[in-house]
Design goal:
This protein has 138 residues and is α/β, with parallel strands linked by helices. Helix content is 26%, strand content 19%. Strand 7, helix 4 and strand 8 form a beta-alpha-beta unit. The radius of gyration is 14 Å and the shape is globular.
Length: 138
């Protein structure tokens, strides 16, 4: 089994800012990108790579995930930070990527929205949004 370390959203942001080989891959579904929002890397001169780990609405695993990584320009030398809603799908995607020859995989802990808070909503307790990192609504 491969090991994909968890990193905080802030640590991922710092790596994206300072490492030209760092890439952020958002593995959520197109519905999530459209309705929840996306990390905004424009101030870093980068774009988020959007490749779903599971396909909406069936949620079957995207069996072309690693091929899509290659087509997006991700290489074995890239330090890849995988992001999903809460950190579970991104971990699975990172493990699959490592197994397919992308060794430098990192899981963004708590994902884009993090866990459900006391108010019953995501996005306020932990994760990319809660940490105040840049994001946009499509």
């Amino acid at each position: 089994m491969t090991h994909v370390p968890d990193v905080s959203p802030q640590a991922a942001w710092e790596a994206l800012k300072t490492d030209p080989n760092a890439v952020l891959v958002d593995v959520r579904t197109d519905a999530e990108w459209n309705f929840v929002g996306l990390p905004d890397l424009s101030e870093l001169g980068k774009k988020v790579v959007l490749i779903p780990w599971q396909m909406f609405p069936t949620m079957q695993v995207n069996n072309q995930f690693t091929e899509h990584l290659r087509k997006a320009g991700v290489t074995p030398e890239s330090r890849v930070y995988y992001l999903c809603r809460s950190g579970a799908r991104s971990l699975a995607a990172g493990q699959a990527a490592q197994a397919a020859g992308f060794p430098q995989a990192f899981n963004v802990a708590d994902g884009f929205e993090g866990p459900v808070g006391p108010d019953g909503h995501r996005g306020g307790v932990a994760g990319w949004k809660a940490d105040g990192l840049p994001w946009v609504q499509r």
